[in-house]
Design brief:
heterodimer, A: alpha+beta, 2 domains, 7-stranded antiparallel beta sheet, 7 helices, about 15% strand, B: about 180 residues, mainly alpha, Rna Polymerase Sigma Factor, Chain: A, about 0% strand
Amino acid sequence: MGNDTRPPRPILEEDLHAFVDSLLEPERRREVQDYIDHRPEVAELVSRLSAQRQALRAAFSDIVNEPVPSRLNLQRLIEERSAPLERGPVWRIAAAIVLTLGLGGTGGWMARGASEKTSAGIASLSLEANTNYAVYASDTVRPVEIDGAHKAELVRWVSKRLKRPVPVPDLERSGFHLIGGRLVATMAIQHNTLTMQRNNGPFGGYSWADDGLGYSVVGNDDAADLHPLADEVRRQVRMSL
Amino acid sequence: MKDLIKQIDPLIPALRRYARALLRDADLADDLVQDCLERVIGQWSQRRESDKPRQWAFAILHNLAIDSMRRRERQGVHLAIDDVDENEMAVPGRQEDGLRHEDLLRALEVLPPDQRSVVLLVSVEDMTYAQAAKTLGIPLGTVMSRLSRGRERLQKVLDGELTTPVRTAMAPTLRRLK
């Protein structure tokens, strides 16, 4: 105002975006507003840009109100990082337990320790369960490290290695008895799963994760036949937690 | 570390939002945020004085997201976005209240990732153009052109769905959202 010699700054497309994004200085905003007010086609464009912006904000607004999952807890991530154990690479000797169950050693299940640090996922759990089953279930000489007659000792030992109590389900009623168990190296698992997932691999079975422990039931039966057994294991484990 | 928590903790919801808006897969997005936070913790003491924590954290997350999208694309999970005719991707319009949440997300997916990220950082994360440029490590002019092309393209896809009988001749359907 008052300075008539200054030529008006041309209104550019980026001014319209900045208008929509409320990034203009008040004076410039007034100039742009005036420009828009005199041009219906520009007004429509600005209105559309504005609506688009609002729609995007609305579409994602719920996410920020969700509770932040515990694995994204900063304090905990910092603590894990400073713990010497957690500095290692993805592979570590996470204590894991394989319990071999028979029917003459044909079915096996495994529970294993979970670290919160890396996510290997349920797919790798089922793969590892398959691998372990392939290696140990076929071993007629020494399929287990501690046999079923020493169940209490087995539970003490693996619970100590896993640094948490490991429930061992009783599957006698389902027709299985405990042959024994052993420790194997494994990758860490992270997410709890809502549903059981059918194993990928040469052997049938199901995998899931509950309360920081991964579980996989593996056998050379049809996968579908193992579902009731897996359900029973999950039921008992949940009850013991 | 206290400073880290003070600066970064309030950003986590927005980091989750940005990751999910970019990738659409909630689990994958949180994986990336976790990765990002671990890097933030690891590199906190090495960051430059001039790095604003917010842009710095978003930049780390953005780079992880781009890597992840490239990996997925290489594995053939993603459509090669530029090869897809926008009309094919357009979603059919449904009802009077116009633009639905899902439609918008699908429309957003049609954008090339570099345009999508600018549109999101500016529209949803309230970054200025200069902040977006800093975060993405690109010149201001590039931010402006990506924003302009991104918004235009998004509008085209959304308008594609509006070429239905629901559309009225005069009033742009988008306006009904207000």
